[in-house]
Amino acid sequence: MPTAEDDARYEIAHALTIEAGTLALAHFRNLEALVIEEKKSGQDVVSIADREVEDLIRNRISDAFPDDGFLGEETGLGEGASGYRWVVDPIDGTSCFLHGYREWCVSVALMKGDETIIGLVYQPTVDEFFTARKGSGAFLNGKPIRVDARATIANGLLGLGANGRVPIRSITCFAEVLLEAGGMFIRSGSGALMLTHVACGRLAGYYEPHINAWDCLAALCLIREAGGWTADFPGPLGLLAGGKVAGAAPQISGELEALIERATARAAI
Questions:
Q1: Which chain regions cross the lipid bilayer (predicted)?
Q2: pLDDT value at position 44?
């Protein structure tokens, strides 16, 4: 059962995620003024908006809960002593953001020990706010959501994530085996949003060979609370290393895992 400490953190996180999204949206509406940096490659970029949004979230949490840990995409890991850790992506889908494409979001997760107990994903461009608390269900703008209980690999859409951290064949081979099975995929540019769309039934499932914790922990909580299945994350290398991510409506989880295994074997040839 949630404790009073959990409740206090949820209340602040709920309001703060909306405030952070509002700040990000203001930058989105004034893209020509943004200072843009390149991290490692042409697709791995960061702007002043990313930094300002993360600073807002981190500073507010630090003021309210100074002993909590914090892991942010832009500012890294700060250890805490309380047993709570916040995991934040200030703008997931930065490339989309910077190109004026609306598929980006603010993602905020709260861990208690090794469990994610709160997942919040806000897409301010369409004013969709997804919220979940462990054991309490998942919601979109306050209304309950569920994964699609009727979806199959053949009749549903799967989200597919891609990035430069993994071999190209790990992506293309999964697309091949999925198409061979009669399925179809989409990619929006935001892993957090595509996972969240599994939770509300828009997508049947999602797979990405490697993802960072800040991109997915909130949305994985949403999927589980919406009645869905998620693969173990982050895997043996730990939270900072990230790992493979998969989530789906439960009736296709076995078939999705089989497709991932088939694609992995094909990519290794």
A1: none
A2: 57
Does 63 carry a binding-site annotation?
Answer: no
Domain boundary among 91, 112, 144: 144
Per-residue model confidence (pLDDT) at position 40:
52
The DSSP result for 136-190, as a single string, is S-EEETTEE----TT--TTTSEEEE---TTS-HHHHHHHHHHHHHTT-EEE--S-
Number of residues assigned to the chain: 269
Is 91 annotated as ligand-binding? yes
The one-letter code for the residue type at 178 is L
Joined tokens for residue 264: 């992995």
With bands split at pLDDT 50, 70 and 90, how would you rate the model's confidence at 39? low
Residue 12 annotated in ligand binding: no
Burial letters 54-93, b for 16+ CB under 10 A, else e: bbbbbebbeeebeebbbbbbbeeeeebeeebbbbbbbbbb
**Is 186 marked within a binding site?**
no
| Amino acid making up residue 154 | A
pLDDT at 43 over 60: no
Domain of 109 in residue numbering reads as 4-144
> Which residues, 6+ apart, have CB-to-CB distance to 6 below 8 Å?
112, 117, 118, 133
Confirm if 191 and 94 have CB atoms less than 8 A apart: no
73 is in an annotated binding site: yes
CA distances to 29, 117, 157, 198 from 100, in Å: 8, 32, 24, 24
The SS3 call for residue 225 is helix
